[in-house]
């Protein structure tokens, strides 16, 4: 029987095309919305977004075919490099809109916290790959993953970036749960977290406090802090069941809709394509998350399973928070919609996340050996 080639490039033929095509379809919906956000002008938002996506797409294919053992070998190095960059941001980062979240690289701004999410998935996947299920029950083995989670969460919160810090915390917690950490630890953390809410409120910035108060009653300041969410709810409601049609959304075209090309892009889609359009988009996201969990279940290695599950959880949290945010169900925390929202860092990091998922799917039959943890 002819042996299957072990060459990385031969792995291109084994890529899960269903995942790849579904991600491309969602991205194409995003490109269409970029044209609408530019009021029909392709070159305002759509052209830069497509260029970013194309560059990230090449990196995604490379990431999909490289040996899984290399990802596992350099997982900790990638994690510590991202933490170091977060520290650099804290010291010399570019300040914009009252937050210090970016590094200037040439003519573009890089937001390292977006890539920290992927680094955390890789680091936790490697750590739990080496830990026997019985050892996970011991609290001494949970110190390392707890530090892996809370160090970047703290650094991102200080920027301040509550939305991304929340996502990193949720992804890390979910991976610990999937690895087999006992319920009682999560209950204890939840109790401590709830007890710390008054302290957290004290250290929150004024604009963050306004967002929480606006969430409770957006009509208190309809022309100020409550403007974004009120306009978003008006746009979603005006879309009805079938929508007003492409480039026909009044809230969008008349520029009443704020941040329509970034955090509130789902609102623009719902206004133009209605309930059916929004449902279709959410169905595609759900299918992509389901595929990630199927890859996790079918993976022979703990590392591959954790990476695939981590990508699925990351997508779920992003979509859930963004859609709930624009509907007024949670406070506005500035979480973009994967593969749709405009932006370089979020686009590249999401496409690379798909690359990690494809890598886990392509190498699902591989089983990297367990080694002694070298934290």
Write up what this structure looks like.
The chain is mostly helical and 375 residues long. It has one domain. It is built from 15 helices and three strands. It has a three-stranded antiparallel sheet, with helices on one face. A hairpin with a 2-residue loop joins strand 1 and strand 2. Helix 5 runs parallel beside helix 7. The two termini are 42 Å apart. The C terminus is likely disordered.
Gist?
A 3-stranded antiparallel beta sheet has the order 1-2-3, with helices on one face. It starts with 16 loop residues before the first helix and ends in a 13-residue tail after the last helix. The protein has helices at 17-37, 46-65, 68-73, 75-92, 112-130, 143-157, 162-179, 183-195, 197-203, 206-216, 227-239, 250-253, 265-298, 302-326, 344-362; strands at 94-96, 99-105, 108-110.
State the oligomer: single chain
Please write the string of helix (H) and strand (E) elements. Answer: HHHHEEEHHHHHHHHHHH
- What would you report as the Rg, rounded to the nearest angstrom? 21 Å
Query: From the helix content, strand content and strand pairing, which structural class follows?
Result: mainly alpha
Q: How many beta strands in the DSSP annotation?
A: 3
List unreliable stretches of 5+ residues: 371-375
Can you tell me the overall shape? globular
Number of domains: 1
Largest sheet: 3 strands, antiparallel
SSE arrangement:
Blueprint (H helix, E strand, L loop, with lengths): L16 H21 L8 H20 L2 H6 L1 H18 L1 E3 L2 E7 L2 E3 L1 H19 L12 H15 L4 H18 L3 H13 L1 H7 L2 H11 L10 H13 L10 H4 L11 H34 L3 H25 L17 H19 L13
Antiparallel strand pairs: 1-2, 2-3
Helix pairs in contact: 1-2, 1-13, 2-15, 4-5, 4-6, 5-6, 5-7, 5-14, 5-15, 6-7, 7-14, 11-13, 13-14, 14-15
């Amino acid at each position: 029987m002819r042996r299957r080639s072990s060459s990385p490039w031969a792995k291109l033929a084994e890529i899960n095309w269903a995942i790849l095509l579904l991600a491309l379809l969602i991205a194409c919906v995003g490109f269409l919305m970029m044209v609408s956000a530019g009021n029909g002008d392709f070159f305002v938002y759509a052209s830069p977004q497509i260029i970013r996506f194309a560059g990230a797409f090449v990196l995604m294919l490379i990431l999909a075919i490289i040996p899984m053992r290399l990802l596992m070998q350099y997982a900790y190095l990638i994690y510590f490099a991202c933490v170091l960059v977060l520290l650099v941001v804290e010291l010399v980062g570019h300040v914009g809109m009252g937050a210090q979240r970016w590094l200037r690289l040439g003519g573009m701004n890089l937001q390292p916290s977006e890539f920290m999410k992927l680094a955390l998935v890789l680091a936790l996947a490697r750590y739990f790959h080496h830990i026997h299920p019985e050892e996970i029950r011991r609290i001494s083995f949970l110190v390392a993953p707890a530090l892996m989670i809370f160090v970047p969460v703290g650094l991102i919160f200080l920027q301040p970036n509550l939305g991304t810090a929340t996502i990193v915390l949720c992804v890390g917690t979910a991976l610990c749960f999937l690895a087999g950490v006992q319920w009682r630890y999560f209950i204890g953390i939840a109790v401590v977290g709830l007890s710390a809410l008054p302290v957290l409120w004290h250290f929150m910035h004024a604009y963050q406090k306004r967002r929480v108060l606006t969430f409770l009653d957006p009509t208190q300041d309809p022309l100020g802090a409550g403007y974004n969410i009120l306009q978003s709810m008006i746009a979603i409601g005006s879309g009805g069941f079938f929508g007003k049609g492409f480039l026909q959304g009044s809230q969008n075209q008349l520029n009443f809709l704020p941040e329509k090309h970034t955090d509130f892009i789902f609102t623009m889609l719902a206004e133009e394509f209605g309930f059916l359009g929004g449902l279709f988009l959410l169905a595609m996201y759900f299918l992509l998350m389901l595929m990630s969990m199927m890859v996790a279940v079918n993976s022979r290695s703990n590392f591959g399973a954790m990476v695939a599950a981590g990508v699925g959880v990351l997508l779920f949290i992003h979509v859930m928070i963004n859609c709930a945010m624009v509907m007024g169900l949670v406070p506005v925390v500035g979480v973009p919609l994967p593969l749709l929202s405009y932006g370089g860092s979020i686009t590249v990091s999401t496409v690379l996340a798909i690359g990690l998922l494809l890598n886990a799917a392509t190498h699902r039959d591989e089983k990297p050996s367990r080694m002694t943890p070298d934290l």
